[in-house]
UniProtKB/TrEMBL annotation:
Keywords: Calcium, Metal-binding, Repeat. Belongs to the calmodulin family. This is Calmodulin. Pfam families: EF-hand_7. SUPFAM superfamilies: EF-hand (SSF47473). One of its GO terms (cellular component) is myosin II complex. GO terms for molecular function: calcium ion binding. CDD domains: EFh (cd00051). Residues 28-63, 64-99, 101-136, 137-169 form the EF-hand domain.
Length: 169
């Protein structure tokens, strides 16, 4: 039963990632990024310094932590010269947006399970959704699935537990 659940979650995630790859950046988004990028490209040489990256990203409504910025910069600034060109910046932004998309998709999936919208997935809700997906589960199987994901032991799955489960499968 737990395996069947994993397969279902895996196919959900697979589809989500295909969708994310399919709709990469629109021309509109690229133009928006280009504009933000050039605002910080002070001398017009087509590069921005790593320090300015945080400012650019915040101007685009992202909110990276210092640690995240450092990771991004290390990832993108291959030659370690402390500057990022537009192509590198674009790659970075498109990755960031994909991460946000998949977060959104997990949230949507949670809402599908959480029928009454109380922020928890009960055994009954889980059984209902799995039955709709053509998975006839016994009460034992449903209970086992809940037990597997239910970190705090309250007998239902909250959003954080759901995210952990989705990310681990």
């Amino acid at each position: 039963p737990a395996d069947r659940y994993r397969i279902f979650l895996f196919s959900l995630k697979l589809e989500a990632s295909h969708r994310a790859m399919a709709d990469s950046l629109s021309e509109e988004q690229i133009a928006e990024f280009k504009e933000a990028f050039s605002l910080f490209d002070k001398d017009g040489d087509g590069t921005i310094t790593t320090k300015e990256l945080g400012t650019v990203m915040r101007s685009l409504g992202q909110n990276p932590t210092e640690a995240e910025l450092q990771d991004m910069i290390n990832e993108v600034d291959a030659d370690g010269n402390g500057t990022i060109d537009f192509a590198e910046f674009l790659m970075l932004m498109s990755k960031k947006m994909k991460d946000q998309d998949s977060e959104e998709e997990v949230r949507e999936a949670f809402k599908v399970f959480d029928k009454d919208g109380n922020g928890f997935i009960s055994a009954a809700e889980l059984r209902h959704v799995m039955t709709n997906l053509g998975e006839k589960l016994t009460d034992e199987e449903v209970d086992e699935m809940i037990r597997e994901a239910d970190v705090d032991g309250d007998g239902q799955i909250n959003y954080d537990e759901f995210v952990k489960m989705m990310m681990s499968s």
